[in-house]
Design goal:
Elements: E1 2-3, H1 11-14, E2 27-28, E3 39-42, E4 45-48, H2 60-77, H3 83-94, E5 98-99, E6 103-105, E7 108-114, E8 122-126, E9 134-137, E10 148-155, E11 161-168, E12 173-180, E13 185-195, E14 200-202, E15 205-210, E16 228-233, E17 242-245, E18 254-259, E19 265-271, E20 278-283, E21 292-295, E22 302-308, E23 311-316, E24 324-328, E25 339-342, E26 349-356, E27 359-366, E28 369-375, E29 381-385, E30 392-398, E31 404-410, E32 417-422, E33 427-432, E34 443-451, E35 457-465, E36 476-479, H4 494-501, E37 505-509, H5 519-523, H6 531-546, E38 555-560, H7 562-573, E39 580-584, H8 603-606, H9 615-621, E40 634-640, H10 649-661, E41 668-673, H11 684-701
Parallel strand pairs: 36-37, 36-38, 38-39, 39-40, 40-41
Antiparallel strand pairs: 1-2, 3-4, 5-7, 6-7, 7-8, 8-9, 10-11, 11-12, 12-13, 14-15, 15-16, 16-17, 18-19, 19-20, 20-21, 22-23, 23-24, 24-25, 26-27, 27-28, 28-29, 30-31, 31-32, 32-33, 34-35, 35-37
């Protein structure tokens, strides 16, 4: 299929373009072989899968296909006249100092800092808050291209040792390394094939999660089975680490380990999905103690915050869809023996809990934005921490017995800012505030509620210029997720600022399936109710069009992972509603997703195609299986060659199918990042490149002749 047109090489030429000029970048799609013999039968219904050969990411044919698709995509992007201008603006917007909230270990303060455009943030230490800072770990030295990142960390109780996990190329696989912070040298200890792991110290070693080594060539695609908890003693051979917990009868279960701050209790969680877990506890202060079952099933979620002496402080949604805090004594583990510490709030959802300065700080979501409530040690309410505006609280850090704590805060118009909190008075002051080339006073965020298809009220955040004219002409980007009980709350992004500076609108819809309003909101968007998620997102698009923030000719939609599924489903159901679509690292083949890496764990949200009742629900919305020969919006699919969470085969097969079925002249491109994964640890350089390509593609296909720089 051909899309014809002229090349433009300068932003000056772009300002005088006619509509016809936007249709003249030539696109010739690479050949995608169809194998018509590949078919599956589900409960008497035959489903063709002609591009299954693209599931083999190691084959020469697939690698050749990937290379040719990237040549087409980057050839197209290279002809957009303002692409370089956008990249330069994003680099300038991103070039500011970024700090994490400091945290204390071994009597010293640690924090992460990025000077501006460093690919990875650097870990520093200082003896006091006002003392000089020294580099502890610089992940930018892990690889020459910045694609190896620092992930999970754990400090020994005395603060001497730091065990940390490394991800290469964005993979979920981890290598765990141990650093002696006193000698500033790494130990010989090196653990391979850790995955979905924490690092939980006890005495002279730590607990972690490991899988059997995968077969060569299948590291990024094979199903992950056989999770087990190990204990590693410093200075010993990791291959001889003792198995602390596993369950060979259930190879699909995956396990996590946690120790309390005083290292008295070991907690083991098990799960078969992304929500719900069992919880077992062992008192390590007692010789030959056994695991006590707090919960043996997966119907609810249990998270141990810490212990108050003999009792565990546990956050759970057991009989509390919006989460509650309870005290559990391991010797009295039956739920009717638990003590309620902070009861469920029926309106607001408890997200996280930290114990600082002798108080318990609870981070709630109130209408999808953060609210910090503080309680004294017996559970009585002490007051709220005043926050600057509608936004999101990130990490809260502090010692149990120290009055000073810290928290990070961000909003759509405020980059991450660190605040120092005086816990007794609940007063906070700015500790570290970034400075960048952007005036937030020109813009505003509002939260409005619209009505979805079935009458459900759904909120959407809308950010744009103050007093903007609602004339339907603004380029708009609508973002969503809607799954796995994950909430979306306000956050800052340089790419969104570049959109706002071009008279644009950014909208974030808090649709069902997510965790913004508790477990009931989540369940309303799962399995055969998944269509509610798509209806909510389509409803958000219809609302911002009806209110004339934008029009169908100027509206783009974006989502990643489960959000990539969201975009894929909405564009196949309502292609008339959008100008541009960005399904990112998406779950797009709903009949086979469970066959790769950790995909089987998503079945609690999605259902499975081998279930007779769930198969028709999946087939009804699966993006890959609902592509027709019609005109689709301009689409740029994004994925990465090291994505072993949502394997790139989803995106490969979807791109080949869309390209084959597309009618008209709007491009269907796929952008395949190299040495990158599902998103975590992606270098800032690659983030800027991807964001500039997406904005360029979006503006070009909205027929914007020029952009503000």
């Amino acid at each position: 299929m051909l899309i014809t047109a002229c090349q433009q090489n300068s932003s000056k030429n772009a300002s005088s373009m006619t509509d016809e000029a936007f249709n003249k970048i030539t696109v010739t799609y690479p050949f995608s072989r169809k194998d018509t013999t590949v078919k599956d039968t589900y409960f008497g219904q035959t489903i063709a899968d002609p591009y299954r050969w693209l599931e083999d990411d190691q084959s020469a044919e697939t690698k050749d296909w990937v290379q040719k698709q990237n040549l087409v995509t980057f050839g197209y992007l290279g002809q957009i006249p303002y692409r370089d201008n956008i990249r330069e603006r994003l680099q300038k917007l991103s070039n500011y100092e970024k700090y994490s909230a400091p945290f204390k270990k071994g009597g010293k303060y640690y924090f992460f800092k990025n000077d501006g455009l460093q690919n990875q943030s650097v870990l520093y230490v200082q003896e006091s808050l006002n003392g000089p800072a020294k580099i502890v770990l610089d992940p930018n030295t892990f690889s020459t291209d910045g694609t190896t990142s620092l992930q999970e960390m754990g400090f020994s109780k005395d603060g001497r040792y730091l065990a940390y996990a490394i991800s290469k190329g964005g993979s979920d696989w981890r290598t765990i390394v141990v650093r002696d912070l006193q000698t500033e040298q790494n130990l010989p200890d090196q653990i391979e094939w850790a995955k979905f792991t924490s690092i939980a110290w006890k005495d002279n070693g730590f607990y972690y999660t490991r899988y059997p080594a995968p077969k060569a060539g299948a590291e990024l695609t094979a199903a992950n089975k056989g999770s087990a908890i190990y204990y590693h003693v410093l200075g010993t051979d990791p291959s001889k680490d003792a198995v602390v917990y596993n369950d060979p009868a259930h190879p699909d279960y995956y396990f996590g380990a946690l120790t309390t701050e005083d290292e008295r209790f070991l907690m083991i969680t098990a799960s078969e999905s992304t929500s719900g877990n069992s919880l077992k506890v062992k008192d390590l202060s007692k010789n030959d103690s056994k695991f006590v079952v707090i919960s043996g099933g997966f119907e609810n979620e249990y998270s141990v915050i810490d212990n108050f002496g003999d009792e565990l402080l546990v956050m759970t949604n057991y009989k509390a869809p919006n989460q509650q805090l309870v005290l559990v004594h391991p010797d009295r583990s039956n739920p009717d023996q638990w003590k309620t510490f902070v009861a469920q709030d029926t309106a607001d959802v408890l997200q996280s809990v930290d114990v600082c300065g002798g108080r318990v700080i609870c981070n709630y979501l109130h209408n999808a934005a953060s609210l910090l409530r503080v309680y004294v040690s017996d559970g009585r309410y002490a007051g709220d921490v005043t926050l600057p505006e509608i936004g999101s609280v990130g990490a809260v850090s502090g010692e149990k017995d120290e009055k000073q704590a810290f928290f990070s805060f961000t909003s759509f118009l405020r980059p991450v800012t660190v605040y120092a909190l005086d816990v007794p008075t609940l007063k906070s002051v700015v500790f570290k505030a970034p400075s960048l080339d952007f005036n937030p006073d020109l813009y505003t965020t509002e939260q409005v509620w619209y009505t979805s298809k079935d009458g459900t009220k759904v909120p959407v955040f809308i950010t744009g210029k103050k007093n903007m004219a609602k004339n339907g002409m603004h380029p708009a980007l609508l973002y969503g997720y809607g799954g796995f009980n994950v909430p979306l709350s306000p956050s800052f992004s340089a790419s969104r600022i570049a959109l706002l500076e071009n008279d644009g609108v950014y909208a974030l819809a808090n649709i069902r399936g997510g965790g913004e309003f508790g477990e009931d909101w989540h369940k309303a968007g799962t399995k055969c109710q998944k269509q509610n998620v798509f209806d909510d997102f389509i409803g958000a698009a219809e609302y911002i069009i009806a209110q004339k923030y934008t029009s169908a000719e100027r509206l783009a939609i974006q989502g990643g992972s489960n959000g990539g599924l969201l975009v894929g489903a909405c564009m196949t159901q309502r292609p008339d509603l959008f100008a541009v679509c960005f399904p990112q690292v998406g779950v797009l083949d709903m009949l086979r997703y469970h066959k790769f890496t950790i995909g089987y764990a998503w079945a609690v949200d999605y259902g499975r195609s081998d279930n007779k009742d769930e198969f028709p629900c999946l087939l009804r919305y699966s993006p890959l299986h609902n592509v027709r020969k019609i005109s689709y919006p301009a689409t740029m699919i994004t994925t990465a060659d090291h994505d072993d969470r949502v394997v790139p085969a989803h995106s490969f097969k979807y791109a080949a199918t869309l390209q084959d079925h597309q009618q008209g002249n709007r491009p269907i491109l796929i952008r395949i990042e190299t040495s990158a994964g599902h998103g975590a640890g992606k270098p800032i350089g690659k983030q800027i490149e991807e964001a500039s390509d997406m904005l360029s593609f979006m503006f070009w296909n909205m027929k914007m002749p020029s952009v503000h720089q």
